[in-house]
Amino acid sequence: MGRQGDSPARGKASSSGSSSVRKPSPAVYRRRRLFAGGALLMVIALVVSGFALAGAFSGSEQASSTDPASSPAPSQPPTATPEPSAPSATPTPSATPGCNQNLVTVSASTDKAAYGPEENPLLTLKVTNGGTMPCEVNIGTSQMEFLVTSGPDRIFSSRDCQATSEDLVKVIAPGASETANFPWSRNRTVEGCQAVESKPGGGGAYYIFTAKLGSKASPKAVFQLN
After folding, report:
1. pTM of the model
2. For residues 17 and 3, what is the distance between their CA atoms, to the nearest angstrom?
3. Among 116, 114, 123, which Cα is nearest to 155's?
4. Which residue in 22, 102, 126, 217 has a CA-CA distance of 20 to 30 Å to 110?
5. Which residue(s) pair with 138 in the sheet?
6. What is the DSSP letter of 185?
7. Given 3-state DSSP classes, what are the helix, strand and coil percentages for the chain, each rounded to the nearest 5?
8. Which helix (H) or strand (E) holds 205?
9. HSE, side-chain direction, 13 A CA sphere, residue 139
10. Do residues 126 and 139 touch, judged by C-beta distance below 8 A?
11. Would you give the distance in Å from CA 209 to the centre of its chain?
12. Enclosing H/E stretch for 52
């Protein structure tokens, strides 16, 4: 009888033991999954907010470094202030084949008719186009000569001691003129620019100035040296 009583007791103990290791119900599984999912969402949110916060700091730093108000404006190349345009000069007329060089004349003049002992004459050569067409004329020093004589005596020539000679071609309009001035220091010269000790005499002596341009020569201009 005693053994038969033990057998039900073991059976009962076995029954109670099986109830202690029973699997959780589906509701418990659902609550666990919800809890785990909520924790995972919280972790993801913290990570995302951390990245967002870091991005916000880095973005604000970048913005401050490129803020136009805080960064110096790029230097612009200096622009020159335009100068006021000068009045346009009258265009130089073009020479035409119809130019008559025979109508281009040369004249001579002095700034005074008589000069005192300490005054130097100013000799002027003038080229005038007396034709009706523009003419091209070489008025350079290679063509000019200022010649002073007294009777048959050759007193001075600008060619004698001329260091250099240059061409200067200009187109002279009809009726227009070009002039060149030469201050004469009342000295004598000879061809080859050799030294000359004597000087032109004063005392009311008359001298003749002749202006030459190439093969053209002016009428005589008379002046007096005192």
Report:
1. 0.58
2. 21
3. 123
4. 102
5. 169
6. -
7. 25, 25, 45
8. strand 205-213
9. 20
10. no
11. 48
12. helix 26-65
Annotate 157-192 with b (16+ C-beta within 10 A) or e (fewer).
bbbbeeeeeeeeebbbbeeeeeebebebebebbeee
The pLDDT of residue 226 is: 95
* CA separation for the pair 209, 147 (Å, rounded): 6
- Residue 171 in this model has a pLDDT that exceeds 90: yes
- The pLDDT value recorded for residue 37 is 56
Secondary structure (DSSP) of 109-163: EES-SEE-TT---EEEEEEEE-SSS-EEEE-STTTEEEEEEETTEEEEETTTT--
Average pLDDT over residues 120-130: 98
Residue ranges covered by each domain of the chain: 32-63, 101-225
Residue 106 and residue 218: Cα distance in Å, rounded?
5
Q: What is the mean pLDDT of the chain?
A: 75
CB-CB contact of 105 with 174 (8 Å): no
Sequence-separated (6 or more) residues with CB below 8 Å from residue 223? 110, 112, 113, 114, 115, 121, 206, 207, 209
Contacts of 26 by beta carbon, 8 Å cutoff, 6+ apart: none
The CATH number of the domain covering residues in 101-225: 2.60.40.10
Q: How many Cα atoms occupy the beta-carbon half-sphere of 203 within 13 Å?
A: 3
Beta bridge partners of 174: none
What is the number of helices (H) and of strands (E) in the chain?
2, 11
Residue 9 class from Cβ within 10 Å (0-12 exposed, 13-18 middle, 19+ buried)?
A: exposed
